[in-house]
Write a structure and sequence with these properties.
Length: 430
């Protein structure tokens, strides 16, 4: 039996209706065994967490972690130019080892800023899975599939290999999905094949949707439909869990098509702002009963994987859009980054709130700083003042991945050296 006791912290469980309280958390074999005030239990290790808040780890519901190698390589471009002229040529040079070290760099940033799980869509996914395994983080992995050049048979085979070989690995830390990339890269025939397979085997789907005006124009010109209508007509929302990334451009009837869907939407506010895509209809989706979580997208576009930046951007953008500061209050934004994102990854029975019986995926945030005092309202401090740099400790499955801001499972100097050399080679001459 392996035990860890966290003592004397303010606990924000993120269970609806529960207020923060001063207490302790006892972790046994990776799960929260007890949570409450004055727990007197023996433990292999004790963390004294005075002046800290314990909250569920943040869950990044849409990422391409390996794109951390392409951070600050191509900024201030329109999405299609950014993708076609910069990202795809650099990605064409990426080896399996590049993806391993790029993903590890992304994971290092996530651990350092309080993210304990992420959903990833990329290539060389066995390298991504290995990086997840080695670092101790949790992830839902998807082989991204573009079907423009051929029938996509090789990509589909890789997607199924990922699912067959890695689902459940790392004591359940790795889960998998099928990832057709986007409506504009997936024609009806192969996309329908993926959807039918997903429904038959009950494999969740992960796809980009309605990110730009240009995407809407492309799909309108080809199929005389909105991107959402296109996916709906192919049966995507009938019988399986779907993680939709971005979902910026929806009309009222598109929102109605998503009502009752399994899964939901990963909102990516910083990427949407930076690429000038628009402001997603978060309030309308939530009012329609759609689950809305939060993600960063890759650092190639968002430039940072700090979920605290996403939390701020999400709430500010909705307040601005509706001209109303009461829209998306602090606690609702924190919920999007924790339990709502956990629902999108289909792991909310295990993580996303701090409750006895759940996996111990949690973070400690150090409040002993000028920008986090006085401590009057913890959710407001976390949503509006905190940054990823305020995270002191990151724990996944009861394992400490960062403590007092020191990585426990990664060798930072090695990660930095490998990532720098590989990034320079990837972008040379582009
Ligand atoms: C085939 S693997 C995933 C693929 O997606 C690309 N990508 C990264 N960010 C975005 C985005 O915001 N919209 C569309 N596609 C994106 C990434 O470069 C990979 O090629
Ligand atoms: Zn993306």
């Amino acid at each position: 039996m392996k035990t860890l006791l966290i003592k004397d912290c303010m606990i924000l469980t993120m269970v609806e209706g529960e207020k923060p309280f001063l207490g302790d958390i006892w972790i046994v074999d990776g799960r929260i065994a007890k949570i409450g005030s004055s727990i007197e239990e023996e433990a292999d290790r004790v963390i004294l967490a005075k002046n800290m808040v314990a909250m569920p780890g943040l869950i990044n519901a849409h990422n391409h972690a390996s794109m951390s190698l392409l951070r600050a390589f191509s900024d201030d471009l329109k999405l299609m130019d950014w993708l076609d002229k910069k990202m795809l040529p650099a990605e064409a040079r990426m080896t399996r080892e590049d993806v391993y070290w790029g993903t590890t760099l992304g994971i290092a940033e996530m651990i350092a800023s309080g993210t304990t799980a992420f959903a990833d869509m990329y290539v060389h996914m066995d390298a991504v899975a290995q990086a997840v395994l080695d670092s101790g983080i949790r992830a839902s992995l998807t082989r991204g599939m573009v079907f423009l050049e051929d029938d996509g048979g090789r990509r589909m085979a890789e997607a199924l290999d990922l699912i067959d070989n890695w689902t459940g690995a790392g004591d359940g830390r790795i889960t998998t999905m099928l990832g057709p990339h986007a409506p504009y890269t997936c024609p009806p025939k192969p996309l329908q094949g993926v959807i039918e397979l997903a429904c038959k085997r009950q494999i969740p789907l992960h796809i980009h949707l309605a990110e730009t005006v240009e995407e809407g124009e492309k799909i309108r010109a080809k199929y005389n439909q909105t991107p959402t209508e296109y996916l709906h007509e192919l049966g995507m929302f009938h019988d399986t869990h779907v993680l939709l990334a971005h979902v910026v451009h929806l009309n009222e009837s598109d929102v109605a098509l998503l009502r009752g869907m399994r899964g939901g939407v990963a909102h990516n506010p910083v990427s949407n702002l930076k690429l000038g895509c628009g402001i997603a209809p978060v309030r309308e989706l939530i009012e329609a009963g759609v689950t809305v979580g939060m993600g960063t997208d890759g650092a190639g576009s968002a430039t940072t994987l700090d979920m605290f930046a996403e939390i701020k951007a999400a709430t500010w953008m909705q307040k601005l859009k509706h001209g109303d500061p009461t829209v998306l209050p602090a606690e609702a934004a924190l919920r999007m980054a924790t339990i709502e994102s956990a629902k999108l990854l289909a792991i909310d029975h295990e993580v996303g709130t701090l409750e006895a019986g759940k996996r111990a995926d949690l973070i400690l945030i150090d409040l002993d700083k000028p920008h986090l005092q006085p401590v009057l309202d913890i959710p407001a401090l976390l949503a509006y003042s905190a940054t990823g740099a305020d995270v002191d400790t990151t724990i996944v499955n009861g394992e400490i991945l960062m403590h007092q801001r020191q990585f426990q499972t990664l060798h930072w100097e090695e990660v930095k050296r490998e990532a720098t050399a590989r990034a320079r080679r990837l972008v040379e001459g582009l």
